[in-house]
């Protein structure tokens, strides 16, 4: 690909060159040029400046054609890059969607298994065990349970309740200590 840039002839150079050529012509020739457009065209085409401009125009057209061919040769590469970009954009979009889904899942699990939530759940479950042991006691007092069933069920529910209360208190103590330490 050429980097040649034509330098246009200045109007003053063109006028002085044409004037010099016109001054050497006879009056009859000048009259014929004035009257006959074909002769005038032929005369103008024979002028050195017009020949130079035509040569520069041909060079520019050749350069333009070479540049167009070069650009067209890049089209397959451009299409391939466009397809790769679209594919990568699709992959990024899918990864972003997956990230958002996993982040929501993480937030749900982080909330579910946060120490505060675990402590509250232990407290609620200890209360449920207490209520269940009260129902067992009521059933025994109403004669719906014999002594052996009452003792095994009641002691089991009370043990579960005490374990849950102990774990809840221990976790609460640890959380307070962490808060004091600045965590």
TrEMBL record:
GO cellular component terms attached to this protein's record: ESCRT I complex; late endosome membrane
Pfam entry (one): Mod_r
The UniProt record lists the keyword Plastid: no
Feature: compositional bias, Polar residues: 10-21
Span of domain VPS37 C-terminal: 96-183
Topology class, membrane: Peripheral membrane protein
Region entry Disordered, spans: 1-21
Keywords carried by this UniProt record: Endosome, Protein transport, Transport
Entries under InterPro entries matching the protein: ESCRT_assembly_dom, Helix_hairpin_bin_sf, Mod_r
Claim: Magnesium is one of the keywords in the record: no
Predominant localisation class: membrane
Intracellular or extracellular location(s): Late endosome membrane
Record's protein name: VPS37 C-terminal domain-containing protein
Organism for this UniProt entry: Bemisia tabaci
